[in-house]
């Protein structure tokens, strides 16, 4: 009998390979980390003090095993299906339907014009209104979107960045119309502009003034909305663009470092705002690497906040994150296969200890999800929660030789990449040099080559291909609804107090040119029915407009 791993490899594994062979001479994770055939106690150094210190217990530094001592034994993650399309009225009906089906939080998808600061009737908005999310041009739209939804009982996540401060004020004003004070609101604003320059592209202004708008939100939320997460720093979109798991971790936390640095330079104490920082990660197909990634992420953030920024509040150090399954893995071919993919990805997020989860729908490679496919995605979360048993124990895979080894190696590789970005002058300087975009582009190219050569198998795409009949009943945006949205916006402009609108926009223009916080002035604009496009135009005039990202 083998006494250790080396003996086993020499006397048992090697003869087996010689007899039966292996499908590859080496195996790697999606991030390129080498994978041994088996892992044992030697690979985790379980007897060392450093191992025990790194692993810890759930709810204790460095939070490798979870941010809460009891995790899902005490409270399940928030089931937050991402929704938004057509009109505010249609999206409101979808929200109510999902809440009736057991969803426990809202997640709002905005259309492209809303994301980049144009009203629905702007020429640039033509053909995009209501296509990939809900159009929100005014307080009237937001009131319709949130009609009859108890905002003091339901938390809301808003995926919005360039226009984040405007949407936050729209939400605050709509809640006020319902009689709900802003200090009773809970939710999350994505507000992560740096990843837009890296991977997504829905930016409006140059990086430096955009960072000021981010910090303005930090300040305002710290003083006025204590239950609101002022930023959700996203690795999701960079991973969707082709980043590896290591790059997702490294680029996300480098961006986080930049935000924290900016807030501190603006005069905030780290423990005044850091407890409301949250994160947004993807869950990809490689189940065990993803689980290890989430565990490594908690440890990395704990070390950054405690060692680099000297945070004292445990809530500043404990990483909380939302997870969405991987849209980029969904295929138009054999779309039923997407149910399997998203289930595995959702399971990985839960095994990794997420605080909030969205599971993609099977038809999203072809259209926005139908009501039926959105329900199935919610049911997927509920089955994981109630029928699998994985919520019965905290950190179910903790102690796995392979998981612990992979967690350690992902952490080490991510910190090495963070150090590279530090050497380039930090995340903003690296963006200006095109570093992150170049690295992601190379990873995406390598991934596609593996698919084209069939080194990487995608079921139904490059192997196991069958003729798939088209799906009937795909969701389509009603063109009449777009016309109605534009007409309603026109009527709003006619009946509002346009003198007050001009005054509020002028005041905002003055404040934006100073170091003063812009959020209170934006809120006054919103309450006087200034539109999102009008407010964004003020910022374009003051800050300038970012027309292209750094060249690759």
How would you describe this structure to a colleague?
- With 552 residues, the protein is an alpha/beta fold.
- Helices cover 50% and strands 7% of the residues.
- The chain is built from 22 helices and 12 strands.
- The protein has helices at 5-20, 49-55, 88-100, 112-116, 139-145, 164-177, 194-200, 207-224, 236-240, 245-265, 270-273, 287-308, 314-317, 337-351, 371-387, 401-423, 427-432, 435-452, 479-495, 498-512, 519-527, 532-543; strands at residues 27-28, 34-35, 78-79, 82-83, 106-109, 156-159, 187-189, 228-229, 231-234, 277-283, 321-325, 356-358.
- Strands 3-12-11-10-9 form a 5-stranded parallel beta sheet. It has a 5-stranded parallel beta sheet with strand order 4-5-6-7-8, with helices on one face. Strands 1-2 form a two-stranded antiparallel sheet.
- Helix 6 links the parallel strand 6 (156-159) and strand 7 (187-189).
- The chain starts with a helix and ends in a 9-residue tail after the last helix.
- Overall geometry: globular
How much helical structure, as a percent, in the residues?
40-55%
Name the strands of the widest sheet in spatial order: 3-12-11-10-9
Number of discrete helical segments:
22
The N- to C-terminal Cα distance equals 55 Å
Compute the average pLDDT: 93
Summarize the biggest pleated sheet: 5 strands, parallel
Strand content: 5-15%
Which structural class best describes the helix and strand composition?
Answer: alpha/beta
What is the number of E strands? Answer: 12
Task: Give unreliable regions as ranges.
Answer: none
Instruction: Using the CA coordinates, give the radius of gyration.
Output: 24 Å
